[in-house]
Structure formats: C-alpha cells, structure tokens
Write a structure and sequence with these properties.
This protein is an alpha/beta fold. Helices cover about 45% and strands about 15% of the residues. The protein is built from eleven helices and eight strands. A four-stranded parallel beta sheet has the order 2-1-3-4, with helices on both faces. A four-stranded parallel beta sheet has the order 6-5-7-8.
Length: about 260
Amino acid sequence: MEQNTTGRKGLLAVSFGTSVNETRRKTIDAIENDMREAFPDYKLYRAWTSGMIIKKLKKRDKLQIDTVKEAVERMLAEGITEVIVQPTHVINGIENDQMIADVLAYRERFSDIRFGTPLLTNEEDSAAVIRAVMEEFGEISKDAALVFMGHGTTHYANSIYAALDYKFKDMGYSNVFLGTVEAYPSMETLKKLVRAHGAKRVILAPFMVVAGDHAMNDMSGEDEDSWRSRFEAEGFQVECVLKGLGEYRGVRKLYMDHIRAALG
C-alpha cells in the first residue's frame, strides 16, 4: 500500500534489533510492513536499542540503523509534529524504560507524543499471545513438552515469564513451559518441570521477537551448554523450531492493536 508522506504524523517502530538478516526480514520487517499497511497516514521510522548490533551491521553490511535519539532527530528534521512510538519489545523492561526516556527528552519539540505498549503489558495481552502462538503449533502430543526460551532480565518486569508459564497451564496447555536464558525460570527449573510432566520429547522454540543469536546458539546450538544439548543429555528427543514471535500473524496483530489503543 502506498504511504502518504505529506502529513506531519510519524510512527516510530522501536526494536532491540538483530544481526541475523534472515530472521529480521521475517520478524521486524514483517511487523513494520504491517504498520505501514494499517496506518498509511503515518510515515514510518525505525530505531533499534542495541548499540552493539547497530555497530555490527554498519561494519559488516554497511547498513545504517538509527538509535532512538537519531530517529527522533530525523523526525524533527522532516517536520513531524505528532508521534506514536510502538516498541516491538516483549516486556516493559530496561530497554523499554530507556527508550521512553530518550523520546521524552524531546517532548517540548512535538505537539503530541504517544506510546504504544510492549507485547506483554496486561492480562489480555498474555491470553492473546498464548492463543496466537498455540494456534500455530496446534495440539502438542501428550508425550511431548513445548518449551519456550524467553530472554529474561534483571528488571522487575521479569516476573511476567513465570506468570505466563502459569497462564499457559491455566488456559489448558499443561505441557507448555516458558523459561529464560538470563533469569527465572531457568533451564534447571525447566528440566525439573518437564521431567515431572513425564515428557519423552521436547520441542524448543524462542519466545523472542526474532529467532536470532539466542535461538541459534543458546537454544539450538551444538555447544554442550545449549538448551538442546542439555535436554538431550537428560535423555529427551529434541526438536528445535527457529521461529520468532514476529513471524506469528496473531502476535503482529497485537502490536497493531497497541498502536490503536495509543491513538485512543
């Protein structure tokens, strides 16, 4: 759909970013394409919050990605006066807090700034994400456990992961488990829960917007410390699904709903 760029409205899509181009096309690019189609009156801008990934892409691919501050400066230079900021972040963690602070530093220079919320912000979001993900996976056989790998954070918002694991069970998915790479629930917790469930097979999938480095290395890598290797060492048959949350149509729709909610 052709985009109307004559207005003074801007939509800033903020992502953590990824250095894996294949998953970026299927996830971040797909979310942004949906934004263009759903909100044709807004000119779309992109910013990533990972300075390390931005530097890596600039050096490796000669690809310039704006930081949040650079994107806001670009919007000002192009005459944008009304801004909606929609993060593709999964939770209201450290990255999201910093993004909001970076944008609000420019609040006096815009007539209106609104923020859409991250993927998992309220109870309705949790139920909607679970429905969207499980719609794709369908029914998981009783001898299998579907184990999602979230990122995890030291931020207090990390509690959403344990709550969501419980929510899967509450919605009838007794053989679905959610853990994190860097916080709680940990891999050790997951091993105990999956073993107690009596599963023989484990299906691993990332609970991250992109199926990037964490999914390819920490989750499904050959290294003995990867989740795949550790589950195999426990005697489980393991299958890996390298599909980021941004590939699920229902998840992308939820981001659009968050923009609509911000618009009021």
